[in-house]
Amino acid sequence: MSRGVFISFEGGEGSGKSTQILRLAESLKSSGFQVVVCREPGGTPLGEAVRDLLLKIRKDPPAALTELLLLESSRSHLVQQVILPALKEGRIVLCDRYADASMAYQWGGRGLASDLVRNLNKTATGGLTPDRTVLLDMDPSEGRRRQGRAGMDTDRMESENLEFHSKVRCAYLSLAKEEPGRFIVVDAAQGIDQLAEEILRQVQPYCLERLTPSGKTFGKTEGGIHHAP
């Protein structure tokens, strides 16, 4: 049975993940690859409900462990319903955040025990790890300035203070240092086009090693993911 390619995107707030994941998806599709795009939390009706609950609630926010457990429930459902089926069909899956995000935010930012987060990640994903992880690295203060220039409304996570986001960044860089063969660390402060070119240059050769472009694109976009026709 063919096995597709699983690529996750990680990074702090304002680093441009959403823009870059869509740019990469379009480039890969134009080269003939079949691509599925999803996000965390979200990517399924259940996941989108969890996303709204976690990011929009302002009064009585969840405790760190409650937050982690909600994220893991959404993650488990996404893996079973979207990611694994797509990989079994030989697709490229691009996921906007994945298990590393819980290590960065709930371990690095919230201070939960590393072993707890790692074990829950493993349980929720069944041990499924991305083939490559693109980390868009940026100083949190610059990410905040970007969001301000764009006039973006901030959700509960984005509204955390700079100390929290600095801890998240440090956690991400620590994870990348642990697994240099999986992580692709890029400077997110560079221009959008230049960044997109760098990501494509590093990701496309790996996809070509693993898959043969079919000349077909995959499905239509609904609710943050590409569904099979």
Automatic annotation (TrEMBL):
<dbReference type="GO" id="GO:0006235">
    <property type="term" value="P:dTTP biosynthetic process"/>
</dbReference>
<comment type="function">
    <text>Phosphorylation of dTMP to form dTDP in both de novo and salvage pathways of dTTP synthesis.</text>
</comment>
<keyword id="KW-0547">Nucleotide-binding</keyword>
<dbReference type="InterPro" id="IPR018094">
    <property type="entry name" value="Thymidylate_kinase"/>
</dbReference>
<keyword id="KW-0418">Kinase</keyword>
<dbReference type="GO" id="GO:0005524">
    <property type="term" value="F:ATP binding"/>
</dbReference>
<comment type="similarity">
    <text>Belongs to the thymidylate kinase family.</text>
</comment>
<keyword id="KW-0808">Transferase</keyword>
<dbReference type="GO" id="GO:0006227">
    <property type="term" value="P:dUDP biosynthetic process"/>
</dbReference>
<dbReference type="GO" id="GO:0006233">
    <property type="term" value="P:dTDP biosynthetic process"/>
</dbReference>
<dbReference type="InterPro" id="IPR039430">
    <property type="entry name" value="Thymidylate_kin-like_dom"/>
</dbReference>
<keyword id="KW-0067">ATP-binding</keyword>
<dbReference type="Pfam" id="PF02223">
    <property type="entry name" value="Thymidylate_kin"/>
</dbReference>
<keyword id="KW-0545">Nucleotide biosynthesis</keyword>
<dbReference type="GO" id="GO:0004798">
    <property type="term" value="F:dTMP kinase activity"/>
</dbReference>
<feature type="binding site">
    <location>
        <begin position="11"/>
        <end position="18"/>
    </location>
    <ligand>
        <name>ATP</name>
    </ligand>
</feature>
<dbReference type="InterPro" id="IPR027417">
    <property type="entry name" value="P-loop_NTPase"/>
</dbReference>
<feature type="domain" description="Thymidylate kinase-like">
    <location>
        <begin position="9"/>
        <end position="199"/>
    </location>
</feature>
<dbReference type="GO" id="GO:0005829">
    <property type="term" value="C:cytosol"/>
</dbReference>
<protein>
    <recommendedName>
        <fullName>Thymidylate kinase</fullName>
        <ecNumber>2.7.4.9</ecNumber>
    </recommendedName>
</protein>
